[in-house]
Design a protein that fits this description.
By secondary structure, the chain is an alpha+beta fold. The protein is 20% helix and 33% strand. The protein contains 12 helices and 27 strands. The strands form 6 sheets. The protein has an 8-stranded mixed beta sheet, sandwiched between helices. A hairpin with a 2-residue loop joins strand 22 and strand 23. The protein binds guanosine-5'-triphosphate (GTP) and magnesium ion. The site of guanosine-5'-triphosphate has 25 residues, from helix 3. Magnesium ion (MG) binds next to helix 3.
Length: 507
C-alpha cells in the first residue's frame, strides 16, 4: 500500500465531522474594513522564543469608517469565518485576495492605478493586484508573499478574515501559522501550462499545503482553478477537468471528504472573472456552478462552543497602553473585565479591552481573531505560543506528551527512532522536540496496535510515541480540543510527520 492510501486509512482528523450551519445563498458582497499584516515569527523553522515587540503593519488600503456595522447587535447576527489562501508559489493567492478587496469596494481605482505604475517600475506589471495584499518592499520587489497578509471583508451574512499565506517553500512556517488560524481554506491552483504540474509534483507546495491544512484543522476547501484567462488555458473545460480529476484523489488521500468538504470552481483572479458575479456564458459556456463570493457565502461553519473553557493561543504581542496580545479564540468566550491566566507561566491578568477586526467590542466568542489588552503583565513576559486561558480550567502545561504520528516522508537516509529531533509546530508554538520512545506501531489496515516492539519506523508508518520538549508548552489532547492537540513535525524545512496528542502526563 502506498503512503497516501495509508494516510487515508487512518485519517488523523476524522475525529471531527464539521457539522455546520448552512447559509442563505442570496447574500450580497458589502463593505470591507481594514487590512494589516502580522509578521510571523519562526520563519525557516528556526525556533524562536522571542520576546521582542511584534511588528504589526497597517496596509495602505483605506479603513472603512463604518464601525457601527460591527457593533454588538450586528455582530450577533453575522457569523465570522477565517479563510486562509494557500497553494504553490505564484498560483495567484495574493492577486485573488487583492481582487476580492477591490471587488468589495475597499480599494479604489486611484490606488489600483498607483499600484499599476509601481509594479511597472519594478518590471512586475502583472503583479499590481497582488500589491493590495503584498505590502512590504521585499514582497513587491520579488513578487512573493513572505508574511501572512491579513484583510477583512464582509457580505450580508458573513464577516470574513482573509489570511494570505506565502507559497514559497522557505516560508512554510508562516503558512502553518496562517492556516492554524483558519476555519476554511481557498486552495489556489494555477491552470497555466506547466504551472499546475510544478505545484503538484512531489516537493511542490500544492501537496504540502493541502496536507498541512488538513492537519491544522482547515475543515473545508474551496479549490479555485485560477488563471483560466491565460492564453495557454483560455477557459478550456479539458484543462479544468484534468486538474479536478488529478486533485480529487489526492485531496481524498489527504483526509478530505471530496464530496462534502471540497468544492472546485474556475476563476481569473487577475481579471476578476467568476468572482463577485458568475462568469459570462460568452467567456465560459460550460460553467454552471457558483462564483467565488457565492461559494464563500454558502460554505458551512463548524459549530463552536462559546461556553467552553477559554483558550486563546497567543501569536503575537506588543506594548500599547498596556500589553496587547493577538490570537484566535479556540474555545470559550472573553469579556472586558474578565480575569484570566497567561499559561504556562500562570500569570494572573485582567482583560482591559477586547478588539475584533480593529473594533472595540465588549465580548467575543470562539473563532474570532482578537487583540486583547491586558493588565497585570509586561509584554516581555509573554512569548508567542503562550495561551491565554480560563482560571477555573487552565490549559495543561507540559514538557512531554504522548502522540500518534503518521510519518509522511523522512529526509533521505534518516530513520525515525528514539532520539529523533524535529521542530514541533502546534497551534502557535514552534519548538524543538525529541522523540524519546516509540511505544507502538499501528497497523494501518486494522488501525490496531501491533504486538511487536518497534525500534524504528519508515515512511508511511503510524506510530505512537513519547515526545519531549525543553521548554514547558501548553497543549491539549486532540480528543478534547482538536485545534490545540494537532501538530506537524518538520526537519530542515520539510514536513516529515503529522500527529495528534493522545495523552498528557497527569498533573
Ligand atoms: P506567492 O505569494 O509568492 O506564493 O504567490 P501568489 O500565489 O500570491 O501569486 P501572485 O498573486 O503574486 O501572482 C503571481 C503571478 O501570477 C503574477 O504575475 C500575477 O499577475 C499572475 N496571476 C495571478 N492570477 C492570475 C490570473 O488569474 N490570470 C493570469 N493570467 N495571471 C495571474
Ligand atoms: Mg502571495
Amino acid at each position: 500500500m502506498d503512503i497516501e492510501a495509508e494516510i487515508r486509512e487512518l485519517q488523523l482528523d476524522s475525529a471531527e465531522d464539521s457539522n455546520g450551519v448552512t447559509n442563505p445563498e442570496d447574500a450580497k458582497p458589502e463593505e470591507v474594513e481594514m487590512t494589516d499584516k502580522v509578521e510571523v515569527e519562526g520563519m525557516k523553522d528556526e525556533v524562536h522564543r522571542n520576546s521582542q515587540p511584534a511588528k504589526v503593519k497597517d496596509k495602505e488600503a483605506a479603513a472603512v469608517e463604518d464601525v457601527e456595522a460591527l457593533d454588538e447587535k450586528g455582530k450577533e447576527k453575522k457569523r465570522h469565518l477565517n479563510v486562509v489562501f494557500i497553494g504553490h508559489v505564484d498560483a495567484g493567492k495574493s492577486t485573488t485576495g487583492g481582487q476580492i478587496l477591490f471587488l468589495s469596494g475597499q480599494v479604489d481605482d486611484r490606488t489600483i492605478q498607483k499600484y499599476e505604475k509601481e509594479a511597472k517600475d519594478k518590471s512586475r506589471e502583472s503583479w499590481y493586484m497582488a500589491y493590495i495584499m503584498d505590502t512590504n518592499e521585499e514582497e513587491r520587489v520579488k513578487g512573493k508573499t513572505v508574511e501572512v497578509g491579513r484583510a477583512h471583508f464582509e457580505t450580508e451574512t458573513t464577516r470574513f478574515t482573509i489570511l494570505d499565506a506565502p507559497g514559497h517553500k522557505s516560508y512554510v512556517p508562516n503558512m502553518i501559522s496562517g492556516a492554524s488560524q483558519a476555519d476554511i481554506g481557498v486552495l489556489v491552483i494555477s491552470a497555466r501550462k506547466g504551472e499546475f504540474e510544478t505545484g503538484y509534483e512531489r516537493g511542490g507546495q500544492t501537496r504540502e499545503h493541502v496536507q498541512l491544512a488538513k492537519t491544522l484543522g482547515v475543515a473545508k476547501l474551496l479549490v479555485v482553478v485560477n488563471k483560466m484567462d491565460d492564453h495557454t488555458v483560455n477557459w478550456s473545460k479539458e484543462r479544468y477537468d484534468e486538474i479536478e480529476s488529478k486533485m480529487s484523489p489526492f485531496l481524498k488521500s489527504s483526509g478530505y471528504n471530496v464530496k462534502k468538504d471540497v468544492q472546485f470552481l474556475p476563476i481569473s483572479g487577475l481579471i476578476g472573472t467568476n468572482m463577485k458575479t458568475r462568469v459570462d456564458k460568452s467567456i465560459c459556456p460550460w460553467w454552471n456552478g457558483p462564483c467565488l463570493f457565492e461559494a464563500l457565502d454558502r460554505i458551512e461553519v463548524p459549530l463552536r462552543d462559546p461556553k467552553g473553557p477559554f483558550r486563546m493561543p497567543i501569536i503575537d504581542k506588543f506594548k500599547d497602553m498596556g500589553t496587547v496580545v493577538m490570537g484566535k479564540v479556540e474555545s470559550g468566550s472573553v469579556c472586558e473585565g474578565d480575569s484570566l491566566l497567561v499559561m504556562p507561566n500562570k500569570a494572573q491578568v485582567k482583560v482591559v479591552a477586547v478588539y475584533c477586526d480593529e473594533n472595540k467590542v465588549r465580548c467575543a466568542g470562539p473563532g474570532e481573531n482578537l487583540r486583547i489588552r491586558l493588565s497585570g503583565i509586561e509584554d516581555e513576559d509573554i512569548l508567542s505560543g503562550f495561551v491565554l486561558s480560563s482560571v477555573a480550567k487552565p490549559i495543561p502545561a507540559v514538557t512531554e506528551f504522548t502522540a500518534q504520528l503518521q510519518i509522511l516522508e523522512l529526509l533521505e537516509n534518516a530513520i525515525f527512532t528514539a532520539g529523533y529531533k524535529a521542530v514541533l509546530h502546534i497551534h502557535s508554538i514552534v519548538e524543538e522536540c525529541e522523540i524519546v520512545e516509540l511505544l507502538q506501531q499501528i497497523d494501518p489496515k486494522t488501525r490496531k496496535p501491533m504486538k511487536k516492539k518497534v525500534l524504528f519506523v519508515k515512511n508511511g508508518a503510524f506510530v505512537v510515541c513519547r515526545v519531549q520538549v525543553e521548554n514547558t508548552i501548553c497543549v491539549e489532547k486532540f480528543a478534547d480540543f482538536p485545534q490545540l492537540g494537532r501538530f506537524t513535525l518538520r526537519t530542515e524545512g520539510k514536513t516529515i510527520a503529522v500527529g495528534k496528542v493522545t495523552d498528557l502526563p497527569s498533573a
